[in-house]
Amino acid sequence: xxxxxxxxxxxxxxxxxxxxxxxxxxPFRARQILAWIRHRGVDDFAAMTDLAKPLRxxxxxxxxxxxxxxxxxxxxxxxxxxxxxxLGDGHTVESVxxxxxxxxxxxxxxxxxxxxxxxxxxxxxxxxxxxxxxxEIVDQVIQVKxxxxxxxxxxxxxxxxxxxxxxxxxxxxxxxxxTDTASPLVxxxxxxxxxxxxxxxxxxxxVDFPKIKLAVSLNGTTDEQRAALMPVNRAFPLRxxxxxxxxxPLPQGRRITFEYVLMAGVNDSDADAERLVRLTGQVPATIxxxxxxxxxxxxxxxxxxxxxxxxxxIVYSHHRVVTIxxxxxxxxxxxxxxxxxxxxxx
Length: 346
Ligand code: SF4
Hints:
alpha/beta, DNA polymerase, domain 1, TIM Barrel, 2 domains, ten-stranded mixed sheet, 13 helices, 35% helix, elongated, binds iron/sulfur cluster
């Protein structure tokens, strides 16, 4: 029997073994093929030299391997590397690799553009084009792994272009392939999915894939303020969002991360800091304060260092876990959407 075509970039080892079994091949072939693709930098079945030639030919006819190409690569003085990947249909998405002493984090995209129109985001301003396939999400990890020193990706974050939970099925499928225990690209506990707060999808993910870490882009402390920055808040106001977060399973010692982009005169007052403490006190939480990364076309400004520290100190005075996170790679347009905008003249 000839099974229907699969894309080896978006399957788990178990799925690939099942597919190969239908074609009369032993299950261990799945490990061989995925080792070539995920860990040995080979996408072409013809080059998988530990497979018999007839099988290589058969695979070339009956299977596919999603392949992104690097349209642009830029490296910051701080070591951050930004990739602009070209998809099969010509659209582009961004991934950012951020090396630090004790980790190397890759930030991937989940959509071309985004529907959610957050006021402080260039990706949102550019509108929505389409969802990425699971293979296109997984291949960002594989392609970056092939080019960075020692293939070092210790952590993965879904914080690039797009709202991952608005592309739910493909993102979950990609998560399954990326964290595939038989041949992982990144371990599930090292993956963080960042959402702007699609409450029903958070509740669904809590059932389908609770192994990963969850981050929520908050950015406002009242419904009115948050809805002005993030239209999604009209559909899922803070109360509904917090209700969904209360259902997220948190093993001992784990926390939900709240990201809070600080914008001068918008959401950086002392009263905001106090409200942020109260809001995030309803679940075990880490608060990341991110001073706004100014860029042309967006009307917001970065608060002074003094104001950022004052905000942090107020939150900290309530014994909350809070850090200031500086944007990396500012010299290479590393904020979400900037490189694509420049490349496509969007
Ligand atoms: S911040 Fe995220 S969810 Fe909001 S518009 Fe940008 S990409 Fe979309």
